Amino acid sequence: xxxxxxxxxxxxxxxxxxxxxxxxxxxxxxxxxxxxxxxxxxxxxxxxxxxxxxxxxxxxxxxxxxxxxxxxxxxxxxxxxxxxxxxxxxxxxxxxxxxxxxxxxxxxxxxxxxxxxxxxxxxxxxxxxxxxxxxxxxxxxxxxxxxxxxxxxxxxxxxxxxxxxxxxxxxxxxxxxxxxxxxxxxxxxxxxxxxxxxxxxxxxxxxxxxxxxxxxxxxxxxxxxxxxxxxxxxxxxxxxxxxxxxxxxxxxxxxxxxxxxxxxxxxxxxxxxxxxxxxxxxxxxxxxxxxxxxxxxxxxxxxxxxxxxxxxxxxxxxxxxxxxxxxxxxxxxxxxxxxxxxxxxxxxxxxxxxxxxxxxxxxxxxxxxxxxxxxxxxxxxxxxxxxxxxxxxxxxxxxxxxxxxxxxxxxxxxxxxxxxxxxxxxxxxxxxxxxxxxxxxxxxxxxxxxxxxxxxxxxxxxxxxxxxxxxxxxxxxxxxxxxxxxxxxxxxxxxxxxxxxxxxxxxxxxxxxxxxxxxxxxxxxxxxxxxxxxxxxxxxxxxxxxxxxxxxxxxxxxxxxxxxxxxxxx
Length: 570
Ligand code: ADP
Ligand code: MG
Description:
Number of helices: 15
Bound molecules: adenosine-5'-diphosphate, magnesium ion
Structural class: alpha+beta
Shape: globular
Distance between the termini: 50 Å
């Protein structure tokens, strides 16, 4: 079974295409959103989602959130005895989403369409794909989050051809896309964004605003805490206050340390003031996407809001100012991306009624090679970026460029392939190296043809040819710093399989609890009361999370139930 997954920085969601429509799949708790949080204790016990988020305040050193921000980097976080990379933590989230979906759907999903920010580079995309593989999923396609949102949106009938703008402000990433839909064709005309801007940053601004106003006692109490715990407490309090400000003019920022509670009132206006510099940063990507497409703000038919942080009034106001109109709200900002991923899943499964829709996408970054230039004084400057496929070019795309030799009798030409926008290649992301032999001739006498072909799966193929000799090379780029092999993925998968799920979810405990609850329903009077007490006791043991305590309690519960069922009270 194929599902659509919005693997968000803050929240993730699952949707499925069935009965000609896209539908969200609730998790085991019945929620449509699952926090992208993971908590692992010393014994390797794992919590994900809301359960992990609950542990953020009590066990900050064992709990991680926002790890999507590390996706595609070498960075890892230490939890207990082991370091975890973003893709491994994401794999844990994906596994729990799949487990929950299996429970809700009665069939285990084996394949998925996973969404990524439009602004993700190759490394980040590859890491996302690996996360799916580690979780045992066949990743059928990665699609850009705004493209997915557009798909969710596109199913409402439209027959104009005017472009619209998707504005997605989540917990950690900000994406702007200009999209056109016409006669079943979805075309992303441009994507821009900032993968370090989101609700998390507004939380930080809130903390900064309030910190000094909590008073000296609070300051001393906070100082005494380990920094992780302090940060977790402050972030949680900021998140709460900030959400309140979405509905009310004033909120209370409150932290409890030990048995003391410290609080300060925050006015919406004050928070808006403190968040001004973040609001300013929302403008750039919007302007860039408009400029890249040559589209005027007035030509946009609609501004579609995606992402939980667009609920903030300060963001709404800024949007209204920026676009001179009220944004469209017809797609639920929290659900659009997952719903769209399921539409794409439906497309892949060639479900009837959908095969008319085609999607075109754009290359999120410029792709090119490094070259050298000779200035008027004959001095060679190397390391200059030469773009071949410009950002926001619709994919699939194939582009060719000619280059020539720089030195007399040069025997070989080397091109380094880069992704990015900077003129100095040092500031771009290196994807690999291509070399080809050339016949010795005076400088500039030998031409080299390079063709870049980029497909919808983000695969870059490079063909190099020296027309003079007919020598050709077709090279698959080997990413030097990121050559994680199938073996590495297998290792990650094994390591993760060793980790345990929360005891509450372990089969034996679930079975014991189900049986006790059934008994409770079957009896009345004192017997029922007694069973109720046994259940409470067992729940207490589960919360202790000590396998031995749990095993003992489970044994006691089961033999008590055996006893009761064997000799029922008359
Ligand atoms: P992501 O795509 O990064 O997973 P989401 O789209 O789920 O993120 O958005 C998460 C962000 O939305 C968080 O920073 C959260 O604080 C913010 N958010 C959710 N609901 C509200 C609200 N009612 N008011 C303000 N911010 C909100
Ligand atoms: Mg999102």
